[in-house]
Amino acid sequence: MSARLDVFAIPSASKLIKQFSSLGRLVVESPLPAATRELVSLRVSQINGCAVCIDMHTKEATAAGESAVRLHLVAAWREATVFTDAERAALELAEQGTRIADGAGGVPDEVWERAAKHYDEEQLTALVTLIAFMNTANRLNVMLEQPAGDYQPGQFK
């Protein structure tokens, strides 16, 4: 399987993707905990069915020392006891922000308030930006049919 477009081979597309990727690097440099970033990235990608991002974020999290148990349970985080209250709040916000069209009125206040209990404004800004970034990345990859399985941790650093 190959992608519909090789965006790195198209000069204008390559420029757009590089600029878009720079936003992702800013989120990585934010004070949002690395484990939370990977868990949220993985959950958003699971919801959107983005195999290449699931591949990437599972491998990045593993390389950073994340346990296989936690990674396997991200899809069922509500029933799992392996996540902190802060991570659970971030995963809930990620789901609500990803499934925004499913809930009239957007993200419910109580979901936001749970996240705001655990993250300061700078971290919340990074978290919301990450959720939006991942949703965009997922949509790009799904539309372009980017193949998954070959990602190596640190490949895009």
From TrEMBL:
Q: Which GO terms describe its molecular function?
A: peroxiredoxin activity
Q: Which residue intervals define the domain Carboxymuconolactone decarboxylase-like in the entry?
A: 20-95
Q: Which top-level group of life is the source organism from?
A: Bacteria
Entries under SUPFAM superfamilies matching the protein = AhpD-like
**Pfam families named among the record's database cross-references:** CMD
Q: Which Gene3D superfamilies match?
A: AhpD-like
What does the record list as coiled-coil region(s)? none
The record's annotation in InterPro entries points to: AhpD-like (IPR029032), AhpD_core (IPR004675), CMD-like (IPR003779)
NCBIfam families given in the database record: ahpD_dom
What is the name attached to this protein's record? Answer: AhpD family alkylhydroperoxidase
Organism, per UniProt? Answer: Streptomyces collinus
